[in-house]
């Protein structure tokens, strides 16, 4: 029988038809890894939780950080993500309405707090034997450089402004402050000795053993900083739900607390 030559175009068309006819769920290879998007200030805490999770399951966690609105925007554009750990109940509600996360999978996990940090070595040098609260915000406001997130740049800045206004210190602090776009930048300036104090999150202090908390801004003076976790609507990892459930386990709760987070009931 003579062999019939098939043009490349017809061959490609045949492959396309065969693929279209195949079941949508057929043998699609998915890595067991869990891809997690989280707030930047949670990176250290989530990395620690990922270590515990891998010891228990041998499944890696891939962590990517971004502010919650940007994370949700990436998910809306189909960026690969299995679990999102975001900030704010309003953002969780919006993500649910937009079908970015799976309904019923949202877990309210942790609360963070705004604190004033200083270098531990600097405090011990100036006041040997004293507590870390010796060089506090009231004493140094308007007299020493303080790193603070700009109110227009991020929610940490707007919340810091509200808290300092409630204390009657906003004018003094802002007049001597070094404005930054995020608490990571404030922490960097403090670690390099460029400022004497920095207003950051409790998690930022827990992530750096060279930092000590000198003041805690009053909870009532700014909105609660609450984090939640949920499976994304298009999660691919078969372990996404298990990872979210793991975050509620006793060992995970203890680790989160050690990393500066209040664990919600």
Rg over alpha carbons: 24 Å
**How many angstroms does the end-to-end distance come to?**
76 Å
Number of beta-strand segments: 11
* Separate helix tally: 12
* Morphology call: globular
CATH architecture of the largest domain: 3-Layer(aba) Sandwich
Trace the largest sheet across and list its strands. Answer: 2-1-3-10-4-11
The percent of residues in helical segments reads 40-55%
Which parts are unreliable, with pLDDT below 50 for 5 consecutive residues or more?
1-28
- The first-level CATH class name of the largest domain: Alpha Beta
How many domains in all? 2
Give the quaternary arrangement of the chains. single chain
Largest sheet: 6 strands, mixed
Percent of residues in β-strands: 15-25%
Note the run of SSEs as H and E: HEHEHEHEEHHEHHEHEHEEHHE
Mean pLDDT rating: 87
CATH H-level homologous superfamily name of the largest domain: Periplasmic binding protein-like II
SS content category: alpha/beta
């Amino acid at each position: 029988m003579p062999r019939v030559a098939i043009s490349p175009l017809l061959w490609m068309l045949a492959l396309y038809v065969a693929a279209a006819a195949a079941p949508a769920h057929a043998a699609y290879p998915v890595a067991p890894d869990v891809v997690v998007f989280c707030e930047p200030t949670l990176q250290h805490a989530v990395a620690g939780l990922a270590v515990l999770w891998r010891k228990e399951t041998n499944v890696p966690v891939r962590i990517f950080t971004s502010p919650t609105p940007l994370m949700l925007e990436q998910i809306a554009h189909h960026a690969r993500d299995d679990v999102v750990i975001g900030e704010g109940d309003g953002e969780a509600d919006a993500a649910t309405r937009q079908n970015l996360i799976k309904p019923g999978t949202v877990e309210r996990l942790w609360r963070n707090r705004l604190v004033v940090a200083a270098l531990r070595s600097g405090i011990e040098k100036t006041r040997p034997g004293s507590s870390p609260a010796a060089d506090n915000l009231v004493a140094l406001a308007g007299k020493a450089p303080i790193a603070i997130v700009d109110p227009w740049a991020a929610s940490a800045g707007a919340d810091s402004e509200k808290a300092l206004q409630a204390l009657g210190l906003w004018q003094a602090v802002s007049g001597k402050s070094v404005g930054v776009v995020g608490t990571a930048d404030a922490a960097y300036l403090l670690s390099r000795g460029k400022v004497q104090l920095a207003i950051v999150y409790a998690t930022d202090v827990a992530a750096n053993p060279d930092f000590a908390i000198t003041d805690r801004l009053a909870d009532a003076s700014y909105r609660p900083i609450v984090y939640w976790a949920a499976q994304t609507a298009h999660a691919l990892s078969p372990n996404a739900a298990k990872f979210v459930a793991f975050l509620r386990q006793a060992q995970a709760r203890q680790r989160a607390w050690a990393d500066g987070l209040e664990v919600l009931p």
